[in-house]
Amino acid sequence: MNAIKPISPDRLPDLLRSMPKAELHIHIEGSLEPELIFALAERNGVVLSYSSIAELRNAYAFTNLQSFLDIYYAGASVLIKEQDFYDMAHAYFVKAAADNVVHAELFFDPQTHTARGVGMDVVINGLHRACVDAQNELGISASLIMCFLRHLSEEDAFETLEKALPYREMIIGVGLDSGEVGNPPEKFAKVFARCRELGFHLVAHAGEEGPPAYVWTALDVLKVERIDHGVQASKDALLMQRLAADRIALTVCPLSNLKLCVFADLASHNLMHLLDAGLAVTVNSDDPAYFGGYVNDNFTQTFAATGLQAQHAYTLARNSFEASFIDAATKRQYIDRLNACFESFT
Ligand code: ADE
Ligand code: ZN
Fold first, then answer.
1. HSE of 272 in the Cβ direction (CA atoms, 13 Å)?
2. CB of residue 286 inside a 6 A radius of ligand 1
3. CATH architecture of 12-345
4. What residues does each domain of the chain span?
5. What is the pLDDT of residues 139-189, one digit of tens each?
6. DSSP letter at 172?
7. What are 338-343's contacts with CB under 8 Å, separation 24+?
8. Three-state secondary structure call for residue 77
9. Less CB within 10 Å around the terminal CB: N or C of the chain?
C-alpha cells in the first residue's frame, strides 16, 4: 500500500464508514436493542421490571462496569429459544453489514443462559445458524468466541467447557469477561491451559477497569493472543513495550469506555496514544445497544473528538484484519479490499 493520502475533515466520516473492517469485540447479548428485548419478552412470556422501552432506555445511565452488567444480564433473560439467539445475532449482522463490517468474531456468554436452564445446544445452534446466514446473505464471515464469566468460579468455567465440547467445531476461541476488578486472569489459569491444549484461540478482557497487572497475567499466565480493552496498559511503560514488541492486538471500545466512565470524555481517550506507541489497536463496539452506537459510530465519534486522521483509519482497519482469527488467504483478500477502498477514495 502506498502512503495514505490526507483527506479533508469533512470527507473523513465517509471514509470511516465505507472502509471494510473486522469487528473483534462485540458481545452478542450486548447487541439486544430495547425493542427486541420487549418483543422477545412478549413472545416468551417473560416479565420485565421495566414497563416500557423508554423506561428501559432511561436506565442506561451507567457509572461503572458493574452498574452496566446488572442491566445487561437482566436484558439477556428474554433469550429462551434457539430462534431468539438467531434473531438477536441476525439483527446484529444486518447492522454490521450497513457499517461495512466484512468479518465479525462474536463473544457469547453461555453461563448467563445455562444458569437459567437454557441448553447449550439452544444457544450455540441459534448463534451458529445466524453466522452461516451472515455469510450466505450478507457476505460477512463470522465466528463465535465463548466467554467465561470471571465473577463465577473456575470450576463453573470447566463445567461450561464440558457442555460446549460437542459444539467444538462451531467455536473458534474462548474469552474472559464480566466484572474485572477482584477477578484476575490467573483465577482461570487451569481452564485456559486446557482450552489451549484443545486448540482454541485465546483472548481475555484485561485492563478495562483493572490494573496493568491483569494485562501481564492475561499474557503470561493465560497466554492470550489478544487483549480485550487493555486501555489501562498506558499506565505501565514496560507493558506498552511488550504489547508493541509482540504485536498483541488491543480490541478497544471507545464508546463503551465513555459510557462506563473509564474516560471522562472521548477527547481524553488514549486511542491515539496507544497507536502512536506502535500498539496493534482495533476499534470495536463492545455492547452497541447499551453504549449508544455500533462500530461506525465508535469510529466517527472518536475521530471527531481526538483529531485522528486517514492514516490512523487505515492502520485501525488493517489491524482488525491482521488480528482476526481468519485464514491467511481470506485475510489477504480483505486487506486487498481495504487497499482498494483507500486508493479509490476521493
Ligand atoms: N460483558 C459484556 N460487556 C462487557 C464489558 N465491557 N466488560 C466485561 N464484561 C462484559
Ligand atoms: Zn467487552
1. 14
2. yes
3. Alpha-Beta Barrel (3.20)
4. 12-345
5. 999 999 999 999 999 999 999 999 999 999 999 999 999 999 999 999 999
6. -
7. 338/19, 338/20, 338/21, 338/314, 339/1, 341/18, 341/19, 341/20, 342/1, 342/4, 342/5, 342/15, 342/19, 342/310, 342/314, 343/2
8. helix
9. C
Q: Per-residue pLDDT tens for 179-230? A: 999 999 999 999 999 999 999 999 999 999 999 999 999 999 999 999 999 9
Ligand 1: which residue has its CA nearest to atom 8?
178
Q: Give per-residue pLDDT as tens, 41-67.
A: 999 999 999 999 999 999 999 999 999
Strands (E), 224-294: 226-229, 249-252, 280-283
Place of cell 469510529: 299
* Dist. CA 286 → ligand 2 center (Å): 5
Q: What angle do CA 152, 258, 269 make, to 5 degrees?
A: 115
Structure confidence at residue 346 (pLDDT): 87
- 29, 65, 253, best to mutate for ligand 1 pocket (most atoms within 8 Å of CB): 65
Does residue 190 contact residue 154 with C-beta atoms inside 8 Å?
Answer: yes
Model confidence pLDDT, tens digit, residues 74-129: 999 999 999 999 999 999 999 999 999 999 999 999 999 999 999 999 999 999 99
Q: Burial-class residue 321 by CB neighbours within 10 Å (0-12, 13-18, 19+).
A: buried
